[in-house]
Specification:
mainly alpha, about 0% strand, about 200 residues, about 75% helix
């Protein structure tokens, strides 16, 4: 259940989200957040069950921004493409953006956040709700493609939605490798799979 917004609560989330730009979650302390935000310890624990609750809220807020941006991009694709070729071009453009090396920190943060869900049922539920929003948006795109005859109905739209996200998050394997895969070769492979196995 989503918690209502409050200026102090929002300030704490914004502060920890800013600190996440320069630190790993496990290196951020409550004292750092309180000093940077100017919020009292009492106020922190009025709005959050514990410090981990605040950290989780900030990670979800950061993830939600990217979910919203991707959903907007998918809605734009649905509203503008007029053919299978147009859809392939739009998906290539989206993949070039999502797979770019400049997005490596987001991919790593997303993978790290997913890992943190194993020790916190509360975080698992909240992050899962955001993940579902993103998966549903991709699923809607593929169902629309099937309705228009641009994608085989033999492919499960939900499975395809999870798959296209999995190869993006899975790119962290290359993000941390000393020798990177050629970006153009990676996009070509991704689009070959999308063209031949998903859209079919």
């Amino acid at each position: 259940m989503a918690k209502s917004s409050h200026p102090t609560r929002d300030r704490l989330i914004e502060t920890i989200a800013e600190l996440l730009d320069g630190s790993d979650p496990e290196h951020i302390t409550a004292d750092q957040v309180l000093t940077a935000s100017g919020v009292s310890k009492g106020s922190l624990y009025h709005h959050f069950e514990d410090f981990e609750d605040l950290l989780e809220a900030a990670l979800i807020a950061r993830f939600s921004v990217n979910v919203d941006a991707t959903i907007d991009a998918l809605a734009q694709i649905l509203a503008t493409v007029g053919s299978r070729d147009d859809l392939l071009k739009a998906l290539r453009k989206l993949n070039i953006y999502n797979q770019d090396q400049a997005r490596s920190s987001f991919r790593l943060e997303r993978a790290r956040a997913a890992g943190l869900t194993y020790s916190s049922p509360r975080f698992h539920e909240a992050l899962g709700a955001e993940q579902k929003r993103l998966t549903d948006a991709f699923t809607d795109l593929f169902i629309e493609a099937q309705n228009k005859g641009w994608m085989s109905e033999n492919v499960d739209a939900h499975a395809a939605a999870v798959f296209v996200q999995a190869y993006t998050v899975g790119r962290v394997v290359d993000d941390i490798a000393p020798e990177k895969v050629d970006p153009a070769a990676w996009i070509d492979l991704v689009m070959h799979v999308v063209d031949k196995a998903i859209l079919n």
